[in-house]
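Could you join me in thinking about how sequence relates to backbone shape in a protein? To get us started, please write out a protein record for me. Would you write everything just below, so we can both look at the same thing?
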Amino acid sequence: MKTHRKKAGGTGIDRRRFLKVVGGTAAAMALAPPRKAPAQPKGLTLKAIIHLYPPTGAVQGLLPAYEKETGIKVVFDQIPFGEGYAKQMAELVTGGARYDMLTPWSFWSNGEIGTGKLEVLDDYVAKAGPALDWNDIIPVQRDLFKYAGHQYGVPISSQTFLLAYRHDIYSAAGLTPPRDGVLTSDAFAANVKKLHKFQKDVYGMVWHHKPVAAAAMSWAIMFNAAGGRWFDERLNPLFNSPTAALVTEYYTKEIIPYMPPDVLTYGNTERDETYQRGLAVQQIPPLSRIPAIFDPQRSKVQDKTTFVTVPFKGLGGTKYERSPAVDEGWAFVINKNSKNKKEAFDFIVWASTREKQMRMALESAIAPNRASVLADKDVRAKHGWLAVAERQFKANLPEAQFPKIPEWGEIMEKHGNELHIAYARQASVKEALDRSNAAVVALLKERGYKVG
């Protein structure tokens, strides 16, 4: 979907609008050779806000080497996923300069860009040349952090979703382990039901639903598979369309009953732990969480897991060769108020080199941000699931990318909240989706969009 321009009002986010965006949460928070890091002023400290997850954890592991090479200390301040958007927006909207770098989720990036307080990176990228090798960064990941023709972020890794399943339990239950790209939504639902508690206390499926925007992200995978669209050509929201209702009914009736009873409270960590401990037959993790499956200290399923593309082929009568998922991810961005913008970008370049991405992929099972590393034979030999990820990237639909509007993070919060209500059967699917759609209409009109 193309970037939508407002018909009235500006694109920036002032303090009043910021309080509406995150007020509740804010109140609660009150193939080149390896290159050496560029010369930097000794004694400098760069600070970044990060959500600690496997890719940022892998970058964090490189920080001592960067300090040794340059004398620059880089400090990562960790924040919980559910607090990330509020804290980053607070830093930007209030004109803060405590942090040189931030790490927005792609859901949040357009809102952060809308503050006008992120540095445009076009000139930095152009001047970096071979040190960054920008054309090697996977295009769809670059574009997640591009707005109105300008680049604002450098992707940390690459991100989409795959189905991970226990092939040993499939075989024990007399089911043929599914091959990549063949699972229809009906077949998947039947498998989930049959495998639920086939082994004692092992659920048919586990997925994440917290924070609520993540529930909307998971829902979007099925919505895309069913051919859903977020808006019509006149910017009328379609969050209560027949396709939206079909997807929500499918998930509520066919999948959720075969998950842990408290699954609506699960975030990434709870989903990971449930699968690691062998308490669920399958899950649909983002690429960034796949390292948890191979954790030698915590995982019991390393050698029992097979990966295929997402299992919603034919949902809603669609005819896609493979079920599409979604493209999303995280990036480094630079605070416009930082006094160390050049130094911050130099660090980002250093952490994004092919050498560093190869190390992160081989040692930490991180899906790389570079096409050359994704295709590397040594990386593929060690992590065969990356070949499946490449097929999923190709199946994802350019026309189904999330809309490029600053309000998108807010919209997903509102929609995710109503999905939770529907999943918990506290309201009918129709009632929840109608409320979601009405909330999106009201938000867009308040922000000066011409809807309808």
User: Anything to note?
Assistant: Residues 163-326+404-446 form a domain with the D-Maltodextrin-Binding Protein; domain 2 fold (CATH 3.40.190.10). The beta strands are 45-50, 73-78, 101-102, 146-147, 150-151, 154-155, 163-166, 282-283, 305-308, 331-334. Residues 1-11, 13-35 have pLDDT under 50 and may be disordered.
